[in-house]
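Feature request, filed as a ticket because there's no other form

It would be nice if the structure record came with a short human-readable summary line next to the tokens. Right now we just get the raw output. Example of a typical job, pasted below so the devs can see what we mean:
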Amino acid sequence: MIALLCSILASTFILIVFKLFERFKINNFQAIAVNYFVAGICGILLQGNVSNLVHWPEFPWFKYALMLGSIFIIIFFLMALTAQRNGLSVVSIATKMSVVVPVAFGLMYYGEHLGILKSVGILTALVAVYLSSIKNKTGLTIKKSNLILPLLVFIGSGVIDTGIKYLEEAYVSETDVALFSSTLFLSAGMMGFAVLLFKKLKGTLRFEAKSIVGGIMLGVPNFFTVYFLVMALRSDIFESSGIFVINHIGVVSFSTLAGIFLFKEKLILKNWIGFVLALLSILLITFSKA
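Raw output as currently delivered:
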């Protein structure tokens, strides 16, 4: 339970950092590219056993982690594009609703239990995510021509969570969790660096020193979101379907509280209902384990 809580808190801290990016005018993409390298370095430092680095490419999960890490930054591009064309609420909902992908995978591939309480809890969580993300009284408006973007974010985010679960279960040993997490981020970092280099060669890049500071602030908690999520998946507190739902809905709940107390955000009635339903969904899933 501690690992799951740490993953939730780390994810919430990331959202707070993004909010500060807006305040201090930090370039999002530059900071995110730096953040992936910082997160990767965190994994190498935490691994401790330096001799493992020599055999890094020989690990059975290595090539899959490289591919999955590449999806990280692709999804970021899609999220940015979706936010521009459809708004932040659509991005938030698409990302959080993607929890149904790893949940469905856990139920079908691993034969996890789906009782009445867990079923109601998952459905309640999805409603909670929607209501918590709505920032106006009329709801969401998405043009049909832009529908493909949130759909890709939904699928991609679900694939990332599902891929992490499958790889840690099938290939990653208990002593390699930090190195596995590091590989994911370094792979994303290399793609981000390639884009920055391309922009530099085109003469369209003006790198800002504060992006490094932002990247460090983002990279450390970003590493621990994955590291602690993997540790939570390896615990026996809940099945993976429950872990992913509680993780997503926990981030929604904590980020809502952070918005209220740190940034003085105002919630409409739908947001409050969503917040209450989020807490209820966690209780339902928790008791489904009992």
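Something like this underneath would help us a lot:
The first helix runs from residue 2 to 24.
The chain has a mean pLDDT of 89.
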